[in-house]
Fold:
Amino acid sequence: MFGFRHWQKLHLLVSQSAARDFDGLEHEDSPWNSISDAGLSKKDELERTGLVNLAHEQSHSWDGKYRRPEELYSKTDYQGPERTSLLWVYEGLNEYIGFVLATRAGFNDADYLRNQLGWSASDFAHEAGRAETPLVDTATENWVLRSANGPWSSLRRRQDYYDEGALMWLYADVLIRQQSHGSKSLDDFLKSFLGQRDTDPIVVPYTRADVEASLNAALPYDWHNFIEKYVYKMNDQAPTDGLEAAGWRLVYNSTPVGPLWFSNLDGPPEVFEDDSIGIELQKGGKIFDVLPGSAAYAAGLGPQMTILAVDGRVYSPDVLKDSIASPHNGKISIVARNFDSVTTYEVSYPGGLRYPHIERIPGSHDYLSDILAPRSNGAH
Structure:
């Protein structure tokens, strides 16, 4: 993919332990990964962690370590503000690279990644904060958002420069393929920008202008306004342009997706009903988050409450899903504990389980499958 390397030997350090089952740290010649106990021998764990851990940290050798934003590398005043505005390249591009590498290499298959992309696009579609916060702000606020996983994330936004950045770079890849009639791809940019030449571990800083110049060298296009639109300006719509250009569209149906949750949180959600009543639940019925504007939000439910019963039945994930699938007269009765009080909440919802997927757009070219296909050495 990169054509060149920036090390004499690359050591992939992997910890397999339930004590720290998801983490990673980039390094130019010795990236570290922690996965679950015996995780390298478990297919589901390789799918879950290969995307955003094993392949991701390895590709950081090129994107982030060898090529690093000048504003990060040249900082001399440690009393001044963090300067992380180019994380949509450092992490966003690298997230896309990790997705592609993990799929080409076989950590997961193309269908798994398509579910991941649909999940991400749908997740961003629910973010109320998109109307006031551009993607670049999630990069400059990285040092705050990194420790702020939890309730009301759709209002403040999360570290969206990762996965929304990846969706933007997917669009860039497709544009290069379209405009060049298939003779070029983002791989050409990766070789010229991140590969360049064989070196020992060194740092070559870059600016936004350098990124745009290298993209233009790969394919002449108005990359400045492309980046301005998707990174530096507000976009309150779901970032699906890249998926649609690649020949796929976001849809919803009753087939569950997952688990696609990547987190080292204690007690991550086990129930995701964002696209139906707008709620996420941890084990035992504790509400992890509620989406503003959703049916659950309108009923008065909020994070940290615990659901005790649904429509007269003791709570379980299956009981909740049964009621969401077929609510009586469009109403779901939920009994929840909020601190030391117990209250009944009436959720108005017409019914139907809804989970995000992507499906082919009839008559379009399937660029996404082209991108994810395994490569032989030297192939484009």
